[in-house]
Amino acid sequence: MGQKSHILFAIGVISILRIQPAQADSDISRLQDIIHPQRSTALLAQDSGVTVVQVTEVKANPTDKGVEIILQTALGQQLQVVNRSAGNSFIVEIPNAQLRLPSGDAFTFRSEKPVEGITQITASNLDANTIRVTVTGEAGLPTVELFDSPDEGLIFGVASVASTPPQQQPPTPQTPEQEQSTSETQAEQEVSAEDDQPIELVVTGEQDGYRVRDTSTATKTDTPLRDIPQSIQVIPQQVIRDQNITQLQDAIRNVPGVNVFTPPSFPTVNVNIRGFLVGAYSGNYLRDGLREPSQTTFDFANIERVEVLKGPASVLFGRGLPGGTVNLITKQPLRDPFYGVDAMIGSDDFYRGAVDLSGPLNDSGTILYRLNTTYKNAGSFVDFLENRQLLIAPVLSLAIGEKTKLTLEGEYIDSTTNSSNLGIPADGTILPNPNGKIPRNRNINEPSAFYKLTLGRVGYRLEHKFSDNWSLQNAFRAVFERNEQELFLPTSLADNNQIVNRLAIKDRRVESDSYDLAVDLAGKFSTGSIEHQLLIGTTLSFDRTTDQSFRGTAAPLDLFNPVYNSTVGSLSRASDATKTDSLGIYIQDQIKLVENLKLLLGVRFDTFKQTTENLVANTALEQSDNAFSPRVGIVYQPVTPISLYASYTRSFSPVTGIAFGGNSFQPERGTQYEVGVKADLNDRLSASLAFYDITRSNVTTEDNRPGVPPGFSIQTGEQRSRGIELSFAGEILPGWSIFAGYAYNDARITKDNTFAVDNRVNNAPENSFNLWTTYEIQQGSFQGFGVGAGFFFVGDRQGDLANTFTVPSYFRTDAALFYKRDRFRAQINFRNLFDVDYFESAANRVRLFAGEPLTVQGTISWEF
Fold it and tell me: The pTM is what?
């Protein structure tokens, strides 16, 4: 009778994964022999000549602590494991092993809701010689502890995230039940009684490839994407690395329904989401869930992933435009030492170096740090445009007891851009010009123009758990921005279509200080059979900005024979100061009516006051208002992998100014209705489909009523956006990943006193498409080599609200070649591989932003 080797999972109040081969004690692994969990599965793989162990049976046995999962093989080889985390999932990968189940399903074992707090356990073949076992927690990632028992071998202890300890025997799992042997039960008792302190093993929490299962942006709680009744896309770290993304404009084009408005060389980030512009200072940008008041172009060195919530989001985040919200999730400290270095070189004199350091600062691991720093010096295809940027971002995490954690964060950015890209006219690019074609590298700014930015962020995040069910989080951040500018802004094109008139803005100095405070109380409880996850929170923000400059007429510029260093006429001083104070209170309840029917209810009340002072004329304008923002959503899951949802949500955005008669403007409102479906096509690939209808009301338009002087506005305008979005993310086959989407958007003016009703909203393409896919060779002599390809299509879009000209569609192709071995990675990325001449967007008829030509970048990375 052959020997048997077992791998056991026990999930409950305390869960155990152990390797228990039937060998003598002398053969049992010791701690010094354990392979470090940060090493990749490839490091553990043996040569092709080693026999792949076949797991012939998977069982789930109820225990007094929960449920025990056994992977059984008839061979005597000892199996090795590599573990990590992804969202709420604890993942174990077993090299040189393969599932061969007698049930006929040779590749997957699944157990749904085996115990309170655990939503799912799966075992599947990751590739031809690796098994992946995944345990997904309901509310968070289980804590992992590592033991080396002389009686049991290698043991992982996983603390359950159950809201309450199991009160009864776990439900019967999908596979037949088998009783534990007496020896196994005794062994567990011996392990529990050990006096030695276990060695804690906490994995990094890195997301699982291209597919992300959970997010906190949509609900401010860790929630599976499939349980959120609103469309949300996440750009994970793996996509950021594979595409060699260093700034937001390059990342955002991977999201269907989101289009780049300003080019990467522009000082601030502006994007179009579901037909509506999301500009800097709009309130639609977040950093770790807190408002990001200054969305300047910055390096991605300390960004872990990007989460984009589509549609209005005022119920959680306050003022904002209705298109969507972009949340930047930063890199956090790791418990295991990590040291990474990147070196990059590319077209247009692009040079960039980055360092990523993390680990514990004391032996007990209660003080952790992370330091990201980068320096970039980059040219551009646009004449005499150059950017230099330094970023330093330290993070310190302190465990204050078992239930309290304090995280301190800082960031410093020093950036200088010489002669910003302000665009080129439509006449001579996308429209005919009798003088010829304007080259896309033409800069209508002056070589002496500049944009200098110094930005500092400091803040903290305090988290305390009162119990397994209730917790409190308090976050604060202060942002200090100082920038100096000089630019020559194009205003109009002369009748000869050759000369562009310009406005000179000299000695502009902007000082902005922003303070944001948020307090959230979250808890779980039940009313009968109905489960609740309640969130009660408040936010308080203060913004102080002064903006002063000198303005005058600059000498015109010949677009076809430019002569720079021109003179400037007489200058007039402009100076103003703005103060904005706002307070928001909100409550949200995620209700589980039954296992497959979930309801999301939320409401927020905001009050704000804004004062704008003209420091030259010594006048002031003060306005204040209140706003209610509701949200209702429902999710129905007819079968486990499918979620059908519907939602209603609103947003508000303050409008500065006074209408004729002296009344201040009401806030703009956004109202969205959305229905959709989210599906897990398999364990590694997911898809979503959304249908939406957004109405933007209280839009200011020209007040042309009789008796009203010119220059006044009235809030009778309205715009509507309707569309469909489809997205895919994950792994099609082992080594073959995909990140793709398609969007159809019909954004039009429905009411206006200036522009024709039914005109299309500018910079909102009707059709857009994105596809990024990579394949990495999994075994053999070329293991670690990979290739990537990207295809990005943006359809025709109007250049202005009057619809006087159309920005043509474009199809851009990107590519990548990479090689990974151990902790070394080398890659080459190609953007706009076929050097297509295209335009990203248009600010107006004299300011079109050209897309990048063929760009090549090479990167070498080491991890220690």
Answer: 0.78
